[in-house]
Amino acid sequence: MLNKRYASDCRFLRGVLHPKDWPDVSGKEIAFWGRSNVGKSSLLNALMKRKNLAKVSKTPGRTQSINFYQVQEGVRYVDLPGYGYACVPEVLQNMWHKNVLEYVLTRTSLSLVVILVDSRRDVGPQDIEVMNFLTKSLIPLQCLYTKIDCISSAQRRLLKLNAGEIHHLKTSTTTGEGVFELRTHILNTLQKG
Ligand SMILES: Nc1nc2c(ncn2[C@@H]2O[C@H](COP(=O)(O)OP(=O)(O)OP(=O)(O)O)[C@@H](O)[C@H]2O)c(=O)[nH]1
Ligand SMILES: [Mg+2]
Known about the structure:
Blueprint: H1 6-9, E1 11-16, E2 28-34, H2 40-48, E3 66-72, E4 75-79, H3 90-106, E5 110-118, H4 125-136, E6 141-146, H5 153-158, H6 160-163, E7 168-170, H7 179-192
The chain binds guanosine-5'-triphosphate and magnesium ion.
């Protein structure tokens, strides 16, 4: 389904919140979700082989809308606003949350949610909550660690997901580690159905 040319075909479609503004539901979507600043937008750029298509920032809370990227005809990546960022007014957080929850629960084109966890912080209570919620809602889920270049090999071995039963990948947009594996996993998911 994803062809080799897809990197050059990628384009930003729209950044919106309300369901009425979401693109037509046809095709398939892979959504990226995790704490603010975990590296969602960076990973999307790496996957799309583009430097700045998704806006990256040192300041948490940069992605404030549901951002849709056309990867190729019928395939979209979706950058979701991050959770756990306290410096945004609560009302705004609630609005993001409400729309993001509605997105994951109702979007029939959603094929997979990729949950990103910062390897320096490891899995936190909100990550667990989100993973449990997706599992209970029967939404296909792939977990991965980001910024794996920032921790030592000893710390890698202690990562909590290693001991759990959840299959996960370890990635770095600095070194490129795990990006190929993630792309392959996405490709397999898209081909399955
Ligand atoms: N060392 C290192 N830094 C990274 C990596 N991925 C992202 N970063 C940095 O982490 C910061 C946040 O990255 P973003 O991609 O903007 O994170 P985000 O999850 O989209 O953040 P929000 O949109 O604010 O929720 C930036 O300063 C990135 O350069 C990585 O693999 N290694
Ligand atoms: Mg972002």
